[in-house]
Amino acid sequence: MREIIKSFTVSIWFMFLTFPIMVIKVNTIEKTIEWRWERLIFVGIGSFFLSFLWRYLITRKESGIKKAEAGEEIKQPLSQRFFEDRRLFFPALGGVIILTVTFPLFFSSYQTNIMTNALMYVMLGLGLNIVVGLAGLLDLGYVAFYAVGAYCYALLNYHFGIGFWAVLPIAAAMGALFGILLGFPVLRLRGDYLAIVTLGFGEMIRLILENWNKFSFGPSGIANIPRPTFFGYQFSFDHSFIYIYYLMISLTILTIFVVNRLQNSRIGRAWIALREDEIACQAMGIDIRKTKLTAFALGATWAGMVGVVFAAKTTFVNPASFTFMESAIILSLIVLGGMGSIIGVILGAFIFILLPEYLRAIEEYRMLVFGAAMVVMMVFRPQGLISNIRRTYEFRSSKKQ
Amino acid sequence: MILELKNIQAFYGNLQVLKGVTIKINEGEIIALIGANGAGKTTTLMSVCGVVPPRFGEIYFMDKPIHNMSPDKIVALGISQVPEGRRIFPLLSVMENLDMGAFLRKDKAGIKQDLEYVFELFPVLAERRHQSGGTLSGGEQQMLAISRAIMARPKLLLLDEPSLGLAPLIVKQIFEIIRKFNTESGTTIFLVEQNANLALKTADRGYVMETGSITIQDTTKNLLKNEEVKKAYLGL
């Protein structure tokens, strides 16, 4: 009963708040005021139900926490059970593989293009995940490395005619180099300060590309970048999309493989220690400088490679593609998916990139839905959709107990 | 001699904290460094492990100069540290915390052996090995911090205020285990402590520090009888 009264006050409050914009409509030409009272009722009913639902979910969540505190057996989250149960996981994995491989056969090149886009963000997300999710270094200028990769291909191709495949490793190395370049000045920074400096770094790269006309051709960008070839064979316009799609899939698989190996390696453990406590990290004999620099470098490598694919896919680069908004999107997809978790990041990227594409019908409300979704996420699943499933170590005593 | 500090002077910016500290530690000893707040006890430890490198003076570990080394190199030489305020990894499980302690080691059999030893010293950690570090109680966290340092199999163990914020009963228990560890493994222990009474009862020799320099050094037996120490630090 109390809940209903509370929700009722919320709805009254909302009706009052939205009254000026939802009800009154001033026609400035005829100088008349139109009163749309029926809308008031809609707002009231809508907010009442939403508020009621919200309260219900909150109480449910809190009772769950209480249960856990009381030591009662709580069932494992669905996602975790899913990944641990091999009978469920392998068929699902097989299904996903078949779907991804046959995707271009069934869907139009527009759909394939969107998927390629999503895969690019998966890769970017996985790269940034190394820096943010594993090493705990908040990097808001990640798009700079993406830009470095894209311009690397564009410029090397323009001046020297170097092809896609030759540039790919060069761009990866350039990404790593710029990662270290950014890493050095921020070695001693943490938290908000680090975020600000990395943000500045990202903007710096974009502004340099925008204003150094002789080097990067300024805001007009570089056009006519060739698409990738397959052992020297150039695909037709339509087929090249499919080709890039498969290329992106193999690159993504490579990324997943490498990042997964890194996560469970020595350096991965050092990153996790660094995220948790820097001083303790030092006391464990971990070289903080080296660890941070490798995190920046290995994170940036992937962005450099995706940058090359981006340039090859759109055949055109200009600084407008590398704004802060891109960094923000990559960061939010990690947060949405679950920091430090590979599958979480992949899922986050697909949701984040595909949803807006398919929500084009209600384009005006896209950002609204997005904002609401983020708020709901932070309240109910602050650890992300799929939180990081860490390897658990099992200790077996050699003595009989 | 396992560790020798020769006339160490350390600064925070322009502020001189250590004004010529000389300490000698023999192998297998427990050394206690006691003193009031802000005397420079923690800074002394920080100088040894390279976090606050001394501006003047020399530090030798097993006759090797270490005052210019970076912290990770010093740990690699066999000095392991339990930092002030425990500093365990809160989101990692107890097992993972211990595993981090052995970060620089590659001998799997030895690590496993030490793990068993640590669980013998602190059985409560074995019970809670899958719990995340942040959910442990203060005493358990301190035990975990000490165990984590032991996992590095150090030649010299630096302990910074193991009694900080713990109940007297647990403090006593922890000191007993420190003593036990020292006799069983022969590891040298350098203990920095405010709780002078317990520290002096645990250690073999003690140093008393006052505003950046050592004022008294003696065996703990004598220190416990020393009038000055009694008045200033033991509250007798």
Architecture overview:
The complex is a heterodimer of chains A (401) and B (236). By secondary structure, chain A is mostly helical. Chain A is built from 16 helices and 2 strands. A two-stranded antiparallel ribbon of chain A has the order 1-2. Chain B is an alpha/beta fold and 236 residues long. Chain B has 2 domains: 3-78 and 155-234, P-loop containing nucleotide triphosphate hydrolases (Rossmann fold, 3-Layer(aba) Sandwich); 89-153, no CATH class. Chain B has helices at 41-48, 71-77, 94-101, 108-121, 123-127, 138-150, 168-185, 196-202, 220-225, 227-234, and strands at residues 3-12, 15-25, 30-35, 56-61, 64-65, 79-82, 156-160, 188-193, 205-210, 213-219. In chain B, the strands form 2 sheets. A 6-stranded mixed β-sheet of chain B has the order 6-7-8-3-9-10, sandwiched between helices. In chain B, helix 3 runs parallel beside helix 6 (138-150). The model of chain B has no long low-confidence stretch (mean pLDDT 92).
Keywords:
heterodimer, A: 401 residues, mainly alpha, ABC transporter involved in vitamin B12 uptake, BtuC, 2 domains, two-stranded antiparallel ribbon, 16 helices, 2 strands, disordered C terminus, B: 236 residues, alpha/beta, Rossmann fold, 6-stranded mixed beta sheet, 4-stranded antiparallel beta sheet, 10 helices, 10 strands, 40% helix, globular
